[in-house]
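User: Could you go from structure to sequence for me? I need the amino acid at each position, not a summary. Structure tokens:
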């Protein structure tokens, strides 16, 4: 759906994702801003917080088509395109490792740590756990 606000148009697109199957983003083409809301977050409503691998990859593929320079997440400050690319790259890498290693948290953790050549952040460790939970539930 597109909404004309008088010189600025907002495109609303349903993108889905693990957080909510009906997640919608808002893209302001003239400003190159993409409002993501909660769409890139894990499913917090399940018994165990989780990311589903296929849903996350589909979501990231859909978000990649927007020509945005600024991304607005619902829980934080606006981030740049480069910061969003880093986040998406991390999600894709952990999803691939989780799939390949069948959700084995210690193996995924070690493999991801080797790939980034540093200790992992608390956020990365949480994402690994959430992808593993998505394999089992």
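Assistant: Here is the amino acid at each position, in order:
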């Amino acid at each position: 759906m597109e909404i004309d606000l008088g010189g600025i148009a907002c495109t609303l697109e349903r993108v889905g994702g693990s957080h909510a199957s009906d997640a919608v983003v808002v893209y302001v083409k003239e400003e190159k801003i993409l409002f993501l809301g909660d769409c890139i977050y894990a499913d917090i409503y399940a018994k165990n917080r989780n990311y589903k691998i296929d849903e996350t990859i589909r979501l990231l593929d859909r978000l990649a088509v927007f020509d945005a320079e600024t991304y607005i997440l619902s829980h934080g400050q606006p981030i740049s395109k480069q910061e969003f690319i880093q986040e998406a790259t991390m999600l894709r890498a952990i999803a691939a490792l989780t799939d390949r290693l069948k959700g084995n948290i210690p193996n995924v953790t070690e493999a991801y740590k080797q790939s980034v050549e540093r200790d992992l952040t608390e956020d990365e460790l949480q994402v690994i756990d959430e992808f593993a939970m998505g394999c089992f539930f």
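One structural detail worth keeping in mind: The chain has a mean pLDDT of 95.
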